[in-house]
Amino acid sequence: MAKTLNEAPITTASARSKLGVGEYARRLDADAAVWYRKGKRGGVWFARWRNYGPGANYKQAPIGPANDVNDKTAEGLFTFLQAEKVARQIVDQARQEAKALADGPPMTVRLAVESYIAVRDARESRRKGREEVASDASHRLRRYVLGRDKRGRRAAIPAAPLADIALHVLNENDLKDWRNGLPATLKDSTKQRTINDLKAALNAAYAAERKRLDPKLEVEIKHGLEADNEHDQDDAVPVARDNQILSDAQVGRLIAAAQEIDSEQDWNGDLYRLVIVLAATGARFSQVTRMRVGDVQRAQGRLMVPVSRKGKGRKGNESTPVHVGKDVLDALLPATTGRKNDEYLLERWRHKQVPGEVGKWKKNNRGPWQNSSELQRPWNAIRDRADMPEVIPYALRHSSIVRGIRANLPIRLVASLHDTSTVMIERHYARWITHGLDELAARAVVPLVPQAGGKVISMHGRG
User: Fold this and answer.
1) CA 143/CA 205 separation, integer angstroms
2) Is the pLDDT at 317 greater than 50, yes or no?
3) Which residue in 168, 328, 382, 434 is deepest, having the highest Cβ count within 10 Å?
4) Is the pLDDT higher at 454 or at 115?
């Protein structure tokens, strides 16, 4: 096209009025142009470009009628500048589609999500040592993106329109429409996790297929799946509730209740030790259940808590040292004595039904705690025994963080000990930070006004 195209003066209505009936072009680049076709009753615009895929050597697409009266905006008519802009969009999209199709069928949101789910499910299966374990991401993305078939009493859920959009044409409006279509009744935390899962799936697909996809897709994903503004995003994150910040005495009541329930329900100390470690470290359930026997360092008076799997750039074998009291270390002695360092520290019994006896179960084998839902039923009994009906297990983490803040530890240290960021600490626990700083400021106050009997120098006398 670059060697044979003869450009014509079509950029203004006045110039076009002097042309005869026929087709005239203006180059967009070496292989594309915006064309003007003049007829007896007016002119129209169309785009034409070289096709590097199968089929014809050139392709073209209509733009619309030309404004041959003047160069001002008019409804339903296109000036040259408007036609040029649309032509570039048409050509860019066509080239991107040809690029995406060059190495096979186009990648869609559905394929990206299914690939991501497979990776997450495989990782979850490895962690739990079982086959075909469905991850939390799998449940969320199937429910709100892919849809699912009817199964038993579970109703069918249709796929979101987003699922069948090809990645090479995906834009931020598509993503915002999906996000805004999430149920209003969905908890903010669940909504954000679902959004994060989809973002991770799309970014992984882009990384794997970037040779076929437009580099702009990364930006479309970023802006399409972020909150409308930073203020709204902050408001959507729930802060620690007052009734979940426990005093040391209340934490002690929960631990004592855990010991009683453990004994009554024949947990053999497994439940009691889990609650103690959660309270002593302030770590997440998913962290403490990955601890090994060797992570109990009695001589140093500390526990080594594995880092969370959240975020990027962290090694799986990193741990955070958390100092604990001798009472905690003594409580863990039965779980460490005579065991190998690489064994899981916190385990529990698995049960199986006694053959031929309905409702009767017996202990089968021991293994690590696998899911936080395993704690739900005994926790209900613990909080009832402690007469704290609204307290949740995560209150132990909230309380540990606030305990550090009240002890005037640096916020960076509190964040590091609890494997989080200073931003999250300041966002969730701002009230207690302010109280702590207020106490420090109060301690800095010194008396300034001289007291009776003190040495007061008269300024007049001094003169």
Assistant:
1) 20
2) yes
3) 382
4) 115
Tell me the HSE value of 325 on the side-chain side, using a 13 A CA sphere. 6
Token digits of residue 433: 């930070």
Which residue did the predictor score with more confidence, 354 or 438? Answer: 354
Phi-psi region of 170 (alpha: psi -120 to 50; beta: other; left: phi over 0): beta
Contact between residue 417 and residue 320 where contact means Cβ atoms under 8 Å apart: yes
Asked if 46 contacts 40 with a C-beta cutoff of 8 angstroms, the reply is: no
Cα end-to-end distance, the chain, whole Å = 98
User: From CA 261, how far away is CA 21, in angstroms rounded?
Assistant: 93
Residue 45: closest CA among 89, 79, 20? 79
Helices then strands, counting H and E runs in the chain, come out as 19, 9
Q: How many CB atoms lie within 10 A of CB 111?
A: 18
Average pLDDT over residues 49-68: 79
Note the pLDDT tens digit of each residue in 156-210.
889 999 998 988 888 899 999 999 999 988 888 888 889 999 999 999 998 888 8
Strand pairing class (302-306; 361-368)? unpaired
Beta-carbon neighbour count of residue 445 at 10 Å?
Answer: 7
Average pLDDT, integer, range 76-105:
81
Instruction: Kindly tell me if the per-residue pLDDT of 150 is higher than 60.
Output: yes
Segment (H or E) for 235: helix 230-236
How many residues are present in the chain? 463
Contacts of 128 (CB under 8 A, 6+ apart): 370
Q: Distance between CA atoms of 162 and 264, rounded to whole angstroms?
A: 51
Q: Considering only CA atoms, which of 222, 225, 224, 220 is closest in space to residue 96?
A: 220
Q: Does the pTM of the predicted model rise above 0.70?
A: no
Residue 227 confidence (pLDDT): 62
355-369 burial, b at 16+ Cβ within 10 Å, e below that, comes to: eeeeeeeeeeeeebb
Q: Measured between alpha carbons, how far is 279 from 257 in angstroms, rounded to an integer?
A: 13
3-state secondary structure of 151: strand
